[in-house]
Structures are given as structure tokens and as C-alpha cells.
Amino acid sequence: MIQSLTNFAQxxxxxxxxxxxxxxxxxxxxxxxxxxxxxxxxxxALGLIGSNYMKALGRNPxxxxxxxxxVIIAAFVEATALLSLVSVFLI
Length: 91
Hints:
The chain has one domain (25-90): F1FO ATP Synthase (Up-down Bundle). 86% of the residues lie in helices and 0% in strands. The chain has helices spanning 2-22, 27-59, 67-90.
């Protein structure tokens, strides 16, 4: 009984090592995923900001006075995207 458990433990360790060798991810893969997620989130946020501003402008033409605030919000989104891009290269 003990011999069969020892054999089972050895084979499971071998299988685990084989799986680890197959599924090794490089840090560049994680960096690419991080860049893709952060840039797509920034693009989506900018699209939502722009579309909602255009909807507000269509309903109320006097909302054009808020264009400066919209530009500042968009700048914050872009700054966040650039910070995430810089952090990828620092990691």
C-alpha cells in the first residue's frame, strides 16, 4: 500500500513539472495584457465621455459652456492611461 502511494506521489510530481514547463508565461505576456486592458479602458472611457457630452449638447444647446470641463475630464483619463503605460515599462 505504501509503495503504491509513493509511486502515485512521484507520478503526480512529474505531471506537475510537465504542466509547469508547458504553461510558463513570460513577463512580456503580462505586460502586453496590461497595456491592452489599460488602453482599451481609456479608449472606452473617452468614447463614453464624448458621446454623453454630445447627447447633453443635443438636448440643451447651452451645455456648450461645459466644453472646458469635458476637456479636463478627458485629460485626466489620458493621464491615467499614460501612467499605466509608464508603469508597464517600469515593472
